[in-house]
Amino acid sequence: MVYPSNFKVVSRKLNPSTVVASAPFTRANKFNFGARMAVFNYDNQVIVWSALPYGTEVKKTLELLTGSDAKPNITHLIIPDREHTIAAKSFKEEYPELKIIAMDTVSIPGVEIDYKFSAKEGNKLIDRKVLEEEIGIKESVILDNFEFVYLPLHANQELVTFDKKAKVVYEADLLFNLGVPGTTSGKVTLEQYSPETGYKQGFNPHSGWSFLTRYMQPHSKVGTFLFNKLVQTAKSKDGLKAIYNWDFDTIVPCHGNLIEKDAKASFKSAFHGAF
């Protein structure tokens, strides 16, 4: 799976320190899942979460974040799970000094993982103390602003990120939000398949092979069955509770629209078996 060379990105400010970038992405050339990156600017240091391929479109996202076309000071890149590694190398090539944060199951040819989460950090809050003493992170830009929960039993080994100051949860494949809560009509406008990313107004992202993706949302019985199966809820219960215990009001998923209203309720709906 690769991104097309001419892929387009739509970016917007989520809060004063964060820009989210959304792009189309098709799994197995059949399923419209979409993709998303977030970039943070704290103390003039830029942290990248779930990288999109570095290039012209990503540069526009970085300009929106910093307010300048000067090359930003990108210091860290967070890989959210072992399936979201395609674009990490493009950033490392452009910023060879940046530090990569990932799980110890990630392997990218020619790219070193600087800070690794292992199963012993799994299913618990990874706060400042754990980051510093067990993971070895010393940089204050990470310690001051972020916490994590690692779900090693998830099929893709999910590393969930929490921006403490903005109260936002970032996750890759733990929870999708591709459909419309309470409906199966598929009538939804996905930011990742909007006119800004090259699609016609009114484009139905759930046509053809993507018919089933309409159920991939936190209030669907089909979707939540799949989410719980992937994470092995009974065995990952402590980790899911640790995520829910964060004081968040927004969830930023890689796949589908952001959940900017009743985010905690949506999370609890998706993983009610953990509570």
Automatic annotation (TrEMBL):
Position of the signal peptide: none
The protein's name in its UniProt record: Metallo-beta-lactamase domain-containing protein
Native species: Scheffersomyces stipitis (strain ATCC 58785 / CBS 6054 / NBRC 10063 / NRRL Y-11545) (Yeast)
Domain of life according to the entry: Eukaryota
